[in-house]
Amino acid sequence: MEPVETRELAYFVAVAEELHFGRAARRLGIAQPPLSRAIRQLERRLGVTLLDRGSGPVALTAAGQVLLGEGKVALAAVAAAVRRTQRAARPDPRLVLAMKPGGDGNLLPGILAAYERMPEAIPVQVVCSFGERAAMLRDGRADVALLYRPRENLTGFATEELLVEEQVVVLPHGHRLAGRAAVSVADLRGETMPRWPHLPPDGADGPEVHDAGQLMQLIALGQVVAVLPESVRGQLRHDLVCVPVIDAPATTLLLAWPEAATSLALAAFVRAAAETAARQPAAPFPAPV
């Protein structure tokens, strides 16, 4: 079988996501006829039909669905290789850490201090993202990330567990549950929950949230409530309150990095994080505030 070109994969992914040749061509900045020819050439190379071009809208075949998932992973890997290669050639090497604002369980200052003392340490650039941290790690925009299990897809990552946290619900002061010592998941039935970018909605029907400031404002306005790790207590506005959710599953803060990574600077950062987390005393579930 002839090797598949990266360009062909990119063309196919655009068509598969748009399910329309005209829109995909505009997205790619090319004319539609060469795009159609490229997809047919890709099908000939693979010996399979990827798209159903019947009288109705364009649809993916079973083979096309497989290639869409695998193709996106392959394209992300190529992009990651390019970005990390370019970053390695910089005269001022750095380690890029992706994290959610406030999503470090209060561990990051200690981790950075411990890392700076290591001989392999290089400057750390912290990049904040509310919903793209795993994607940034996959496509090479970040070298390491702080992620939460079970919310994130950890496929392809090596991980180090740093902190297990119980969960609380963040509410406006005037909410019907704000004075409770604790609540259950059943108590939250019917409440509007926010949706997180790049994650399944899991029944949430509220607005998509892109940063911590937006989330806290929506809660203060009574438009959503949010179940979050208990370390969020340190970031609360004066008009918000936290109440423990006694039967919500615990969340685990992880340090994640690509499985194939070989950087000595990254290995030292992982050691610093693990040692810092091991020294962190386990905190009891505090009373509501």
The secondary structure category is alpha+beta
The geometry reads as flat
- CATH fold name of the largest domain, please? D-Maltodextrin-Binding Protein, domain 2
Model regions low in confidence, pLDDT < 50 over at least 5 residues:
284-289
Number of helices: 8
Kindly state the number of beta strands: 10
Which strand order do you get reading across the main beta sheet?
A: 4-3-5-10-6
Strand content: 15-25%
- How far apart the termini lie comes to 64 Å
CATH class group of the largest domain? Alpha Beta
Largest sheet: 5 strands, mixed
- Give the C-alpha Rg: 23 Å
Give me the strand/helix succession: HHHEEHEHEHEEEHEEEH
CATH superfamily of the largest domain: Periplasmic binding protein-like II
Mean pLDDT level: 90
Helical content class: 25-40%
Short description:
This protein is an alpha+beta fold and 289 residues long. Helix content is 36%, strand content 18%. A five-stranded mixed sheet has the order 4-3-5-10-6.
Q: Can you tell me about this structure?
A:
By secondary structure, the chain is α+β, with helices and mostly antiparallel strands. The chain has three domains: 76 residues, Arc Repressor Mutant, subunit A (Orthogonal Bundle); 102 residues, Periplasmic binding protein-like II (D-Maltodextrin-Binding Protein, domain 2, 3-Layer(aba) Sandwich); 78 residues, Periplasmic binding protein-like II (D-Maltodextrin-Binding Protein, domain 2, 3-Layer(aba) Sandwich), CATH 3.40.190.10. The strands form three sheets. The chain has a five-stranded mixed beta sheet.
